[in-house]
Amino acid sequence: MYAERPAPAGLACLWTRTVSSPTVQRVVPDGCTDLMWTPATGALFVAGPDTSAQLASVAPGTLYGVRLPPGAFPSVFGVPAHAVRDLRVPLAELVPSARLDSFSSMVEFCASRVVVDPALAATASLLRSGDVGAVAWEIGLSSRQLRRRCLDAFGYPPKVLQRVLRFDAALRLAWGGMPFASVAFEAGYADQAHLAREVRALAGVSLGQLIRP
């Protein structure tokens, strides 16, 4: 069972996942990063931004997570997001001084360090639907500067960030019950075939398989 609840300002959400037997979970890219804790082992891991689906083995018990919104990773962990792209890294390797032993201490750690940068939020918003070159011009950066900003803050170059954010938007619409043709239009794909290709490239399965209960 997976459940989310609201988080303090600057964080995306708090979540828990409880399973009664070993299972494999498909984790798909969403532009976010997570701090995760397994009480049974005391393990604290940081999940970096993914560029494709990851199959995670989940042991019986409850996994606790704090999700950071796109762009927030460097302010919390002190390293550029591309350094942990597609990786799961022990928290101690990034912040050796952190001493966390409860879900509440995880939340406090992230909430006290996160910095919300309006410029990064604007960059992500513009890239959701705009041409990369046009976005760079609109925010007053060269294409090379925009690439550096995106790699450091989000973990992706601009075009990959655009693909991931569009895919995440499409997935949310599909979960809400919207027909796939309408999902393609609303999320900014050229057509339903374009949506299908992108979903398979980023998730490894079809959209129908991905949202199947």
UniProtKB/TrEMBL annotation:
It holds the Pfam family HTH_18. Keywords: DNA-binding, Transcription, Transcription regulation. Residues 132-213 form the HTH araC/xylS-type domain. PANTHER family: BLL1074 PROTEIN, HTH-TYPE TRANSCRIPTIONAL ACTIVATOR RHAS-RELATED. This is AraC family transcriptional regulator. It comes from Lentzea pudingi.
